[in-house]
Amino acid sequence: ALNQVADETKMSILPEEFQTSIEQLGRICHALNSPLGVRLDVGGERIFLVDSSGAAINPVKLGAALANMVLKARGGGTIAVPVSMPTVFEAIAHQYGGQVIRTKVNLQSLMRAASEPGVVMATDGNGSFIWPEFQAVVDGMMTVAKLLEFMTLQNTTLQDALAEVPPYHVAQTEVTCPWEAKGKVMRLLNQQYKDRLAEQIDGVRIVLGDEEWVLVLPDADNPLFHV
Predict the structure, then answer these.
(1) Predicted structure pTM score
(2) How confident is the model over 122-138, as pLDDT tens digits?
């Protein structure tokens, strides 16, 4: 281990500072015409990318692109993602005869799923990736290595890999709710939409139509729902 003593004062940064660092990374990549730029979080777990134009890459789309690349490289396999992720992952897996495991919206559940036989990648759509053949925990540096490996062996660029992702659409919001009303909201949703309920993995997932659904997820630490 090198410099193995953690500095508690550097274990987190303000959102404004993080955004500034991403913008700086984008300017550097654009000036150097670099094919991509990577920023790791302070723990070396999550990764954030910018392309050659300096634009930040949406982490969900990055996850979909890497899912496409690993399934293409392996000729199939299983991808693990939280229930909150779009169904574009199922569309990608279908192309290669693969499948998708859906988990609760937390890293512990994702890591458990990553330990299942046949899982080749897991991601939370927030910059965290797991490569079970290496180890079933989040690892940012291994994600960078796998991305460069796939780009080299498949003779592709980051932009081309992102362009291969099928189109999908996501809308997200938060709705405040008093602590004491959370249980009532969940019960009412289950009653009102009982004929449209999908598999209840986490929160309440309601099917609205073909490839269209809404997930209502209570926040564990705050008086609000994620929708």
Answers:
(1) 0.91
(2) 999 999 999 999 999 99
